[in-house]
Design a protein that fits this description.
Blueprint lengths: L1 H16 L12 E7 L4 E10 L2 E10 L2 H14 L4 H16 L24 H18 L6 E2 L2
Parallel strand pairs: 1-4
Antiparallel strand pairs: 1-2, 2-3
Bound molecules: zinc ion (ZN).
C-alpha cells in the first residue's frame, strides 16, 4: 500500500508541476468558473462539446497542488468521452474522495483518478479535489453563475 501511495503522490506532484490541457481553447462551446475560497483555488474550465461528447477540454487559473493536479487528470480522463460517461465518472470520483477514511475506496476502473482517494482522510482537501469536477459539471449544464464550494 505504501508503494501505491508513493506512486499516487508522484502522479499528483507531476500533474501539479506540468498540468495537462492547461490553456484556453481556441474554440469552445461551454465554460464555467469555479472558486474554492477556503483554499484560494480559482479555475476556469473550457469545453468543446459535440454530439454529446467532450471533443476538447482545457482549464486555466490558480490552485493548490491537489486542485491543479485534479483538474489536470480530469481533463485527460474525460477528453473524448460521452457526457453520460463523464457524469458517471464524476459520481464515482466524488464517492471515492468523500467516502469514510475507515473504508477502503472502490477505485476499480478509475485509472489515474484513484490517486486522489487519499484525500478522504483530509476533509479540507476534498473541495480542492472536486472543484474542477463541479466546475466542469456547471459548464456542461450551462449555468452561468460562478461556482463556489461554499
Ligand atoms: Zn486547494
Amino acid at each position: 500500500m505504501s508503494d501505491l501511495r508513493e506512486l499516487y503522490q508522484e502522479l499528483i506532484v507531476d500533474h501539479h508541476k506540468n498540468p495537462r490541457n492547461f490553456r484556453k481553447l481556441e474554440v469552445s462551446s461551454h465554460h464555467a468558473v469555479g472558486n474554492n475560497p477556503i483554499c484560494g483555488d480559482r479555475i476556469t474550465v473550457h469545453l468543446l462539446i459535440k454530439d454529446d461528447a467532450v471533443e476538447d477540454i482545457a482549464f486555466e487559473g490558480t490552485g493548490c497542488a491537489i486542485c491543479t493536479a485534479s483538474a489536470s487528470v480530469m481533463t485527460e480522463t474525460v477528453k473524448g468521452r460521452h457526457l453520460w460517461e463523464v457524469e458517471s465518472l464524476f459520481d464515482r470520483f466524488h464517492d471515492v474522495v468523500t467516502g469514510s477514511p475507515d473504508e477502503a475506496p472502490d477505485t476499480s476502473g478509475l485509472g489515474k483518478l484513484a490517486a486522489f482517494a487519499g484525500v478522504r482522510e483530509f476533509p479540507m482537501r476534498v473541495k480542492c479535489a472536486t472543484l474542477a469536477w463541479h466546475t466542469m459539471h456547471a459548464a456542461i449544464e450551462k449555468k452561468n453563475e460562478p461556482v463556489t464550494t461554499e
